[in-house]
Amino acid sequence: MPSWLRIVLVLFAAVALFDDLHALDWPALPPGQRVLTSAWIVLSYGAVALLAWSAVAGAAAIALSYALCLVLDEYSITLLCGCVVMVAALAMLERAAMLVHLAVTAVWIAVTAWVLESTDFLWALGLPLAIAALIGVAVRFFLGQYRLSTRRLAAMEATHQRLREQERLALARDLHDVVAHELTLVTMQAAGSQRQSDPEELHRTIDTMDTAARSGLTELRTLLHILRDSPGSSDTDPDPDGPEERGNASGLTTGSLHGVAQALEGSLERAGLLPRFELGEGVDDLPTSIRGTAARVMQEAVTNMIKYAPAGSRCLVRMSVRGSTLHIHTENRIPHRAVELDHRELASGFGLRGIHERVALLDGEVAYGPRNHVWHLDVRIPFS
Fold first, then answer.
1. For residues 258 and 298, is the Cβ–Cβ distance under 8 A?
2. What is the tens place of the pLDDT at every residue in 191-236?
3. Residues 105 and 206 in one domain
4. CATH of the domain at 310
5. Where a domain ends, among 56, 91, 117?
6. Owning domain of residue 177
7. What letter would DSSP give residue 310?
8. Is there a smaller number of Cβ atoms within 10 Å at the N or the C end of the chain?
9. Which of 90, 117, 144 is the last residue of a domain?
């Protein structure tokens, strides 16, 4: 019940109670009737005031007022307050309590008409209370519709919030996948170039950095086109680097896992590592969602290899289809100190988290960790 309505009920009951008690001709009433009359008036208006806190308490108080008015042969105040209580009772009480209140009111009307032996009282009491009951039913219906709409709105808002959170996480994963690999390669190459004195080797390093930066830029542009829901070859938003560069970005936009492996193998070689990729038969025949996740898993694994594997060490990426499950296994050596000081700023932890999230969306499993200074990553993704 709104606060303003509570205040109105209490003020109405207080003012009416004071007015009726003040209007009574107290000297003309016998002492016993004074007590009963006072109790009757207090119970009647008290029932209205109690509605501000509890409809059950208000219904109980008006039931006592029904009994007293039969003794006093006074009905006006009880009828007025009974109509107010009837509206509130039918609007707010539980079904069982509501039926009890209706039954008590019906019995009171019938007993009053029988005691007075007058059908006029049956109509005089029954008609106003029946109208009040109809109003209460209408209020109950609209309150129910309001609560239902509120629950539906809350459910829709929760769903919308959940979808926004999923979209935010998906965008974070995509941004990490697009930027982390190429920027890691650029960062490692830039760090290595500071120790190079051979001009030709320095030029090759710069070319590698340029290729990685362009690849990352192309992947980022592709992601932005997807977010805009606009194709890269659109006439209204042309790709300034042309379709050829887009196809050679990092292999991730080609749809071929062999193309992805070839591009990532080149990244490892440019980083001074010795990669070996083993892709089994049928990997390029997998569903698109599986291929996309597999490509991102390989990219993140290669990114971590570039970050942590010692220069000149061997790296393995193996992918195979066994039955209805795609298996991905990677391994690379890591330093005795799992994360070297120079690499701490690169170890954000978002990549492994992103792998977990992507694979979980496909009901897959991820396991990783070091064994004898070799980092292992195992991913299993089921498909139908």
1. no
2. 666 666 667 666 666 776 776 677 667 767 766 665 665 444 444 4
3. no
4. 3.30.565.10
5. 117
6. 160-382
7. P
8. C
9. 117
- Which tokens hold the place of 32? 């016993």
pLDDT at 83 exceeding the cut of 50:
yes
Distances in whole angstroms, Cα of residue 119 to Cα of each of 100, 123, 124, 127: 24, 7, 9, 12
Q: Which amino acid is at 343?
A: H
Q: What are phi and psi of 279, to 5 degrees?
A: -110, 120
Q: Hey, what are 160's tokens?
A: 């919308």
Helix (H, G, I), strand (E, B) or coil at 230: coil
Residue 370 CB contacts under 8 Å (≥ 6 apart), including other chains: 334, 338, 376
What span, in angstroms and rounded, lies between the C-alpha atoms of 212 and 214? Answer: 5
Mean pLDDT, the chain, whole residue set: 78
Q: pLDDT by residue (tens digit) across 143-163?
A: 889 999 999 999 998 888 888
Residues 211 and 86 in one domain: no
Task: Quote the strand ranges of 192-313, DSSP E.
Answer: 274-279
User: What's the rounded Cα separation, in Å, for the pair 42 and 25?
Assistant: 16
